Amino acid sequence: MLPLFAIILHSGGGPLTRFEVVLFLLVAGSFILVGICRQILDDWIARTRGRNWPTASAIIDIVSVVSCVNGKSIYYIATLTYAYHNPELQMGDYSRTFGDKEEAEVWANSYKGETVTIHVDPRDPTRSVLREEDL
What we know:
The chain folds into two domains: 2-48, no CATH class; 55-134. The chain is 36% helix and 35% strand. The chain has helices spanning 2-10, 18-48, 101-109, and strands at 55-70, 73-85, 89-98, 115-120, 128-129. A hairpin with a 2-residue loop joins strand 1 (55-70) and strand 2. The radius of gyration is 23 Å and the shape is elongated. The two termini are 45 Å apart.
């Protein structure tokens, strides 16, 4: 990115050359591509995280729905908080995003008091994952 700024500043502020435009578009495209690839990688990690960890039973004790504002749009995050013993009492949570408050509340309340299967990190029993397919 620094060479691009140096080229533009060195050109004296005159009209941009074809090389400068192509270089700028390549740099901008690279940033967009890295952002897309990072999101795909984050989604993949979230889907596969804890897949091979040992399982344990947990009870969903607390459910909550909070509203969040992102610019002009409002969305709702429903969170399921669960408790499990491995060997001591531990807690974890699972969140899901909704566009409608009532839908988020219905979804969260449907799991209150339910027993679910979680995956516990064998190296650190305080870390656990409730995977979407285990709900």
